[in-house]
Write a structure and sequence with these properties.
The chain is built from 16 helices and 9 strands. By secondary structure, it is α/β, with parallel strands linked by helices. The chain folds into 2 domains: 16-275 and 313-389, Alpha-Beta Barrel (TIM Barrel); 277-311, no CATH class. Strand 4 (139-146), helix 7 and strand 5 form a beta-alpha-beta unit. The protein is globular and about 55 Å long. The two termini are 36 Å apart.
Length: 398
Amino acid sequence: MRDAGPVPLPAPVQDTLCAQDTLRAQDSLGDRALRLHDRTLVVEGHVDTPTLMLDEDYPVARRHTDRRAHLDLPRMEEGGLDAAFFSIYVAPYYGNGARAVGRARAMIDAVTRQVEATDEAELATTAGDVRRIARSGRAAILLGLEGGHALAASPDTLRALADAGIRYVTLTHVNTNRWADSSQDEPRHGGLTDLGREMVRTMNEEDVLVDLAHVSDATFFDALAVSTAPVIVSHSSCRHLTPTVRNVSDEQLRAVAENGGVVMINFFDAMVNPALDRTVFAAAHRQLEREAKGLRSLWSAVYDVKRARDLPGATLSDVLDHIDHAVEVAGVDHVALGSDFDGVFDLPQGLEDVTRLPWITYGLLKRGYTEAEITKILGGNTLRVLGAAGREGGEGSG
């Protein structure tokens, strides 16, 4: 199970060339948007393609015309995506011990093998790496561990995975683990335990970003109180607009800004769709109670309600609304992109795969953002935080 469960991907979308031709023809901003997008270093905060690479021997260097996934290296190039954090996702059923650690290592190995076998990409661990690789015309691949249970409650394991290339750790997934509470599980600790605080301090020491996607509100603020480096929220959107526990509140947005971190907007329909209001989530929660299921099954219940009420799907405009809101509350220096490509089953109309990223640039231009602001949102903010958390502290946002 990934962020939204093992559900088939959406129907085929338009060919990239056609999509970009359509963007150029849209209006006077279309061609400007493509030029800006092309010269901007674009960074994605969270893609789940590694699960396919390990479990389905998915060749990431090959372009997949059957749309079996949202991302591959040729489509990254077509979408102007220069760098992406590939999620080393460990499902909760792997437990909290050696089996979970082994799964993480196997996925790291699968990504490493494929990246090293192609001339089109290179593994990166620093912001400087990303810039160097992007200048060479290749894709920079960073690694983020999704699911703190895969650390086996061991700072030493954290250090070992950092040495293997991990550059952020999502403290929980949908499961509360031995040292941190999740937003989609029963709280056991009231936030972070003492061990959890030690884990956060170790991440700071090892130049590993603390990722607060998926965590409970109490864990969120506990981690901010401990971390001496900027944090990230690698794939969440705005709770004010779509009221799910997986999104961040305005208070959390302001807290991340004060910390110097960045919130990366998720594209998943259930996290950006304005039709999914409080009544929808309340009905979904009631269904889970009737069925004696926990919040780990939230998306299944939400989509049952969505189908029953015949509610519309999300659009590109809805994602832009979440970017707008995050910028309004946190400031333009603290907002970025974390699509969750290949980790979700329902993407907004107009953002069906990675080739559609230039349409975000177009949408931001159309809403009045300056080119400098767009450059920050597309990648500059993520690179700044990556640099500040590591030995490159003080790097700019360009």
